Amino acid sequence: MRIFALPDLGEGLQEAEIVAWHVAEGDEVGVDQPLLSVETEKAVVEIPSPRAGRVARLFAAPGDILQVGDPLVELADAGDAADEPRAGEPAAEEPERPARRDSGTVVGRVEARGEVSRESPTPIGRRGGVAVRATPAVRALARRLGVDLGVVTPSGPNETITVRDVERVARLLKEVGPIEPLRGVRRTMARSMTQAHAEVAPVTVNDDADLNAWWPERRDLMIRLILAIAAACKVEPALNAWFDGRALGRRVLPHVHLGIAVDTGDGLFVPVLRDVGNRTPEDLAEGLARLRRDVEARTIPPEEMRGYTFTLSNFGTFGGRYANPIVQPPTVAILGAGRIRDEVVAVAGRPAVRPILPLSLTFDHRAVTGGEATRFLAAVIAHIEAPEAKRPRAISTSTSASARTSRCCASTCGASRWSGLRRAPRRSMPRTRFRAACGPSSARSACSA
Description:
By secondary structure, this protein is α+β, with helices and mostly antiparallel strands. The protein folds into three domains: about 1-80, CATH 2.40.50.100; about 130-175, Irregular (Dihydrolipoamide Transferase), CATH 4.10.320; about 185-440, 2-Layer Sandwich (Chloramphenicol Acetyltransferase). The chain has helices spanning about 135-145, 165-175, 185-200, 220-235, 280-295, 370-385, 400-415; strands spanning about 1-5, 15-20, 30, 35-40, 45-50, 55-60, 65, 70-75, 120-125, 130-135, 160, 200-210, 240-245, 250, 260, 260-265, 265-270, 270-275, 310-315, 335, 340-345, 350-365, 435. The strands form six sheets. Strands 12, 15, 18, 19, 20, 21, 22 and 23 form an eight-stranded mixed β-sheet that branches. A four-stranded antiparallel β-sheet has the order 1-8-6-3, with no helix packed on it. It has a four-stranded antiparallel β-sheet with strand order 5-4-2-7. Helix 6 (about 370-385) crosses helix 7. It is globular, with a radius of gyration of 30 Å.
């Protein structure tokens, strides 16, 4: 008999959820024959048999979440068949062991005391800057009833949780039913968002793009957004980077691998479009359609959801104007696009109705400055407002300080001396808004669509 455990699936993954078994107890399996399917890191993968043999036992059921090293299946060799009971025959019973009796003997001497021992409450944590306390007896009651003291509102003196408090929460939890564990994609999403909230110093800048030059005759918005991001990464390469918080360093990357946020009933997927700056609009459209098909069919391989350098969330497909998209480490920025709306704007001193696309750029202020972020957003708007969707032209990343100043002035004043950032004449100053203050204390959690 040999027990096959959940193997190391790579990329630092430590757990997997069993989706389905492809074998049953008693089946004969061959080398590399699929044993089961597991879901991890937003992908479903098959685990093959490491050897030939007969399946003697399955240690887990579909829906179980296992850690790396936990037993999966017990495989028996052909020679082990003699030791196993045949189908329909009862297994050999183990000899019954005599039960041990407790004689109640106490070693030592028990002294009787006439006084009553009173328990003192001790802190279990802080809530709103105040220490919350509970006695050992209350803690034991909470463990027995399955109540997390962190969600109990204390009613006793000095913020002390009482027995009645625990019993009240236990009755409430019994009424609403047991907790539903997050599984699969939602479980991965929860961990990713927790990591992002703990590590990133997010700041969000909002602005609008006027699509009057091509909307609604052309509706290739997604492709234009992709090309605009690639063009803006050439203007401000600092936003196409990976940041290492421990080493306090960054890697500015030469190619833009764009993560596309895709919403499904199972949760959020982020497949990757590779090297978007060197692809034609037709090639990007074909690649985007293929990624969406693979996500919907749950056949996308794990490597197609790793290694992105920037993220795009087109949440406006469902609704909403502005948002605070979440930056996922080690990337340093994400662009969110809201729903297109008709809005009255000033054009050459006269009111006009124009199709307006709201944009939200969240960046990690540990690695990106406010100037870099706003210049990036201005470049996105300039590219997306152009009549034709074009591949981004090559721009040197080793730009001088004077050239950067010229770009900043062009994006702010609408000047034409740097044509790559020429703005539409609908307004003289871009309406740029900071949605969060600088610094770690301003971290706000929001899920990108």
